[in-house]
Amino acid sequence: MDTDVEVLIAGAGPTGLLLACELGLAGVRAAVAERLPRRSGQSKALNLQPRTAEVLDCRGWLAPLLDRSLTLLPAGHFAGLPLDYAALDSPFPHQVGIPQARVEEFLEDQLARYDVPVLRGRELTSFRQDAEAVTATLRTRDGTEHTCRARYLVGADGGRSTVRRLLGTPFPGRDGRIGMAVADVELAPAGDGSGGPGETWQLPDLAPDPAGVAFLLPLGDGVHRLTFGGPEQQNADRDSPVTDDEVRGALARCPGPRRELRRVRWASRFTDASRQAERYAEGRVLLAGDAAHIHAPAGGQGLNLGMQDAFNLGWKLAATLRGRAPDGLLATYHAERHPVGARVLANTRAQVVLTLPDPDAMVVRDLLADLLTEPQANRRVAAMIAGTDIRYPMPGAPDHPLLGTRVPGIRLPAGRGALLADAASKAAATAEPWADRVDRPGGAPVADEGEALLVRPDGHVCWAGRDDDSQGLHAALTRWFTGSP
């Protein structure tokens, strides 16, 4: 069938760009349509969680991103309560401190290598889908319209997604109850000649306080990220400008020496609104990132949740387009990612409650703080925030502890799986006919002696068992990598 592209992605944020990279790496003809004429340079998010680091490392993209990072944080937080990432089962037991703008810049640089265009200044205004494709209308800033026909359309166009609205997908949840603001600011040096607060990255102090919260993080080049919320922000209209006086008032609440504001580079407001699309897919149209879910930015999970949506979706779209997908593969995108999104919405709502200056909430916070001093409890919550405890439902032996979990530390070319087994095992012989789709990486981690693991292109175990279980492995190879070759 003749189409302009195979996949059209609306939105050039981290979710849309990572999805485009996945598709481009797999040789899929994709394009990204972005309403803004150029990158804003603004960085709403500032971190990559350990699971996102694993995802990027899987494709060889992490190392060059680390060169652009600001710091590595060996801890996370739950409502400001510290979480020890050193205990995580991950080769990257830390957060990568990196502004969102740098992540976007890197991913767009990769797209140029894959010949995937980013169509800036092109706003998606309408679309219609039929049994074979989606026809979208894109409008330029001067009002000129043209159409683009694609096999699939992915809405990665943010919390106010045009794609989601046009699709008519219900977006249940609740509106925001707490107002906050964020600003990138240039500050004068502290009066004592030091850099003052925020010159090193520290966990935010989110303890309940009637006066509100305010904390600084350094972004380099004399710029700081100021996040704050107090009584003044609660009554402000969501779209009203953040004033310099608001910023100065928040700076006065930050710990350490008083800092003088020189300039506000940009500022915006946000709330703890929490909503999730009922369906992540409708026909040939799919939703990812903030288009599929919005939540309070508690624990630093938002950018990561969206990028992991893209990683889950990319290889499934590529396999579908290349005729290598078993029936129902694309449907597993919603089945696997919707519960993950729902859990993030739940934990961010809980974190917001724990920062309210309410006596009962403070009692619960104190109780949780005590529980998190226990290593096992701390490790469990840390894995949830880091994204390393995600276990997708998989057909097969449900009692195997590795089935559905991720295997970090292996490199997987786009669209290819891996068999982790001894080279001379029966499992290796069983998988040989799938050699064009399933690699056998040397030196990769394996299960217990005498066992083998089959790993999907996203690094999750889709079969685990004895290496002489040829029948079970053959069924899994057929299920995830299409019928017998």
TrEMBL record:
Its cofactor is FAD. Residues 4-347 form the FAD-binding domain. Keywords: FAD, Flavoprotein, Monooxygenase, Oxidoreductase. One of its GO terms (molecular function) is monooxygenase activity. It holds the Pfam family FAD_binding_3. Signal peptide: none annotated. InterPro entries: FAD-bd, FAD/NAD-bd_sf, RIFMO-like. This is FAD-dependent monooxygenase.
